[in-house]
Amino acid sequence: MSEHWDKVSEVRDVIESTYRRRTPRSAELHAAAQRYLPGGDTRTITFFDPHPLYTERGQGCRLYDVDGNEYIDFLNNYTSLIHGHAFPPVVEAIARQAALGTAYAACAENQQQLAELIAGRVASVDQIRFCNSGTEATMNAVRAARAFTGRDKLIKMEGGYHGTHDPVEVSVHPALDQAGPASHPNPVPDSPGIPSSVLGDVIVVPFNDREAVGDLIRQRRDEIAAVLVEPVMGVAGAIPAEREYLSYLRQVTAENGVLLICDEVMTFRLDWGGAQAIYEVEPDLTALAKIIGGGLPVGAFGGRREIMSLFSPLEGGMSQSGTFNGNPLTMAAGIAAMGALTRERVAHCNALGDRLADGFRAAFEETEIRGQVTGLGSLFNVHFVAGPVRNYRDAASADKELSRLLHLALLNRGIFAARRGMFNPSTVMAEADVDQAVAAFKDALLELKPCIEKSSPHLLT
Ligand code: PMP
Fold first, then answer.
1. What is the model's pTM?
2. Which CATH number does 7-82+342-459 carry?
3. Mutate-to-test residue for ligand 1 from 45, 156, 161, highest number of ligand atoms within 8 A of CB
4. Domain 88-340 has CATH 3.40.640.10
């Protein structure tokens, strides 16, 4: 045991000291930032030990940090930069619009242009409203569902992330000792400051479990406004819904007058018409963000005309305010990005994702380390677990320290990915970029291997 821990700390020391040696300027900037930003940080996910990375610029699929290191970017601002950095059509569109003004308290034609581009691709979306983040998108979609049904309760998946408003920041990363029974999880607030009163209106169910959600909806249909679900759970570790699960959700919600909200904030990149086109499921409402703003802050929600007309000043009159809703700069960038996202480019990006995932699976086998690669097309995640990953609890049993060290070991090799092991290619990548990442991944696994105990379930032999 102690020999093993000596090995772990030896590997950890080498990986962390290599990172420190490569990034002294990032360390300096982080130290200085602590004066005015708590912990030197303003976005929880960008912080990591021993210090976060400071980027200087991005170009195509490459990122450059303030110490001059180059990285291939497999994170793309958490899936939002589908065409990588500084994509020329987006840069030109932003420059053109910026010269005409960046915000007006008035309507602009490019709002309907982007709305048409999206509604034209997503069969279930008749009408859309814009907002400024995925958080606002799911918040407004949930509110619309509550207003439409006259009911308050929301069903969400254990491990599902939908932004930071109170009812959805519940049971995103619950500690397993507080999470309750697997088939009837407790709603666990993900942050201090979420009032306990909120928990009464949130019902948490296990992902990919038809029986659990079906029974619940049938028993409590009169209280439930909507089920909120991602076709592929992103933050939980790129865990795809099983085909039958999503179609069952559609069926059981429709039969019981409950709305189905698909959160496609991340998964919209997976198909020209969003992941709902892959699954052939038409939700009542869809939440969007990330790629539809061409890299600028954005959110949108849309769906059946009957529901969306609640927001029409000519009909329902429900308020949906926002100083930057439908911001012309964002609309211009979004139109350029979505216009360039042809079916061919989506297919290219998904093929790169498949190549990368297959390469990672082969690397696990060749290094005799048991790991799982889950996901779909251009969105996937590496898990240090031995068995299949179908839901939050399967993924939560992973070895977190190994994931943390893998992230640093990849940075040390010029590969930029998510701390939790999520990867997503962009349309501007080539197979050679992917192959470079696979080689780096295998090399990083070999560096980590001494950390993994012989008796551990993570080691194949
Ligand atoms: N829904 C999903 C599925 C997401 O992945 C995210 C962000 N990662 C959000 C909602 C929230 O989006 P935003 O960060 O733009 O508020």
1. 0.97
2. 3.90.1150.10
3. 161
4. yes
